[in-house]
Amino acid sequence: MPLDDNFETRLDAARRLRRALKGHRLGARYGSLPQQTKLRHILNLRAFDGRHARAPYRRLAEKLLCHEPIAARDWRDHHLRHKVRAILRRADRLVAGGYRDLLLYPQSRQGNSKSD
Fold it and tell me: Is 4 left (phi over 0), alpha (psi -120 to 50) or beta?
């Protein structure tokens, strides 16, 4: 096996193959995304889809973040307004090619990413 940036991933794949052939439990996969990260990506993509469907930011905040109506007079200074914008910025990066970093996680988190 080459000792490159993906060595740990290959080593884990070989370990899991060996365990499967022996009939043992596979255990946790190396580089699997944490649950909180998965939920954040789901939220990002749901927000992206909502914006693509031309939903206003206030409606996105109501549906995705608080599940309660936000008065129009309160929206200008509402803390969720900034959160929705941040979520949509992350979603834009993800859709623009950042999803490819997920294929090499956790190596992509170490600055080895070659994203556009």
Answer: beta
Contacts for 49 with CB less than 8 Å, ≥ 6 apart: none
Residues 50 and 17 in one domain: no
Domain assignment present for 116: no
pTM for the whole structure: 0.66
Find out whether 19 and 25 touch, Cβ atoms under 8 Å. yes
Instruction: State which amino acid sits at residue 94.
Output: L
Domain count, the chain: 2
79-93 and 35-52 are packed helices; what angle lies between their axes, rounded to 10 degrees?
90
pLDDT in tens, 19-62: 999 999 887 777 778 889 889 999 999 999 999 999 999 999 99
| Rounded Cα–Cα distance for residues 64 and 50 (Å) | 10
Domain housing 12: 1-30
